[in-house]
Amino acid sequence: MERYNTLPDLAKAAAKLQETSFRDLFANDPDRVHRFSLSLPCIHADFSRQKIDRQVLDLLCEFAEQRQVAGFLQQMAEGKTVNSSQNRAALHMAARGHSNDLPRQVDPENWESANQRITDFVSGLDDGTVTGADNRRISTIVHIGIGGSELGPKTVYTALKRSVRQAIKLRFVANLDPACINDALSGLDPAATLIMVVSKSFTTLETLANAKIAQSWLQQHLGKPAGHKQIFAVTNNREKAISFGVPEQQVFDLPEEIGGRFSLWSSVGVSLAAALGIKTWRQLLDGARAMDRHVLQAPARENMPMLAALISFWNLNFLKLPGRAIIPYSERLAPLVSWAQQLLMESNGKSVQSDGSPAALCAAPIVFGDAGTNAQHAVFQALHQGKTPIPVDLIAVLRDRENNLEQHRQVLANMLGQASALMVGRDSEDPQKHFAGNRPSTTVLLDDLSAFALGKLLAFYEHETVILAHLCAINPFDQWGVELGKSLAATIEQRLSGAEEPKLDIATEAVLQRIKAKQSNE
Ligand code: F6P
Question: What residues contact 500, with CB distance under 8 A and at least 6 apart?
């Protein structure tokens, strides 16, 4: 990174801006709100409450040019190998695209047939050709998957489930704790339930353990044939799914080039398409596709994900702000926080660059949050008065879909009130009641919680994540950091089951002995 002369200039600019208040930034640039806001159909982002000015934006855009961000995005869209450690393309944009704008690497026939399979499955559920035992109509799909195999579909389902026709309901199971699958199966009619096991690798411990419970639940209630007929899989590992007991024709393929946290748009979303209907599913993909076109075509300064990424880059590396709160002022968008957390932290939480050399720059904020106004009663104390400012994304939906204009108005007022308090603060002679203000936030407004707008919002965060990674020379598409703990868990399980070896580190041994002693007394 030494060769980029913009970095020292950005560091100098940061020293100056640290000392500049928002009051001065707005006073010095009357056009500030307009200058740092972008409006696209359905979505508006106001970055004017971030600690940037024209000079910083110039430098950031110059750095983006030096890092050839636009070229990298183009390569990704064209299906070039952008995931270097796994020697793969990243095809999530292709997954939501149309056959006429597929990258050359993607076989249009495979692509068509994958889409057609989703459509056929959904029509089969609708017209009663896909049924449960006794030809009963399917009323629930239990979607079993974890991480990227759950968070996208769950976020979209929660957001849209009330506004769209729903002949089929979804229940999600991720956690290894059997409480999760027990709760999900509780009260369901086995003959009207499909199990959708979603795992790219089909080796994920949590998913397989839960899938086994679901499979035997079906078999216990309906006999072995139903255990087969009513279990489906989405995977890149067909063989494993089949040997698990999923009939071959009930396996949906997931290409290797679609990473878990970017996989919503692929067959990973099939249960979602079944619950919300094909029309809504397509609107979701179209929304994401519209954001793809924007990110590929808009110049840096008018490019919403690019600006978001440049500001994150600036906050993390120059203003030295390691956190990021994501606060959707919408109950239905609450799961967006976990989705974005995985997206940003699993993609970008890395200490080496794509070429294996030590990372000079930080690409992963510590993401947390909750739905506003709940978050106001939990984390906002620290956001307003904590020692380290935490940049906040405040997301609001402008159209009320709950038929409660008054309460919706209160929700919006709360969001605006918090954004203003964070920025302006309030002087008080009593230090306990003093609000320093000057805390950065971005306001994102969605016209409506439609499938199209939601697709745009999710693709916006995806592109932000990828651009941020590229600015820091990090590969966002692998996740080697999740391996070690998983393999240790397998070893420790043997020890918990009575094996004497292998020995672990002293601290782990101590806890292990305590657990064993407690369990042997019970
Ligand atoms: O957390 C690691 C991870 O590999 C994620 O990247 C992925 O989304 C999740 O586990 C689930 O993996 P799979 O789809 O292979 O079960």
Answer: none
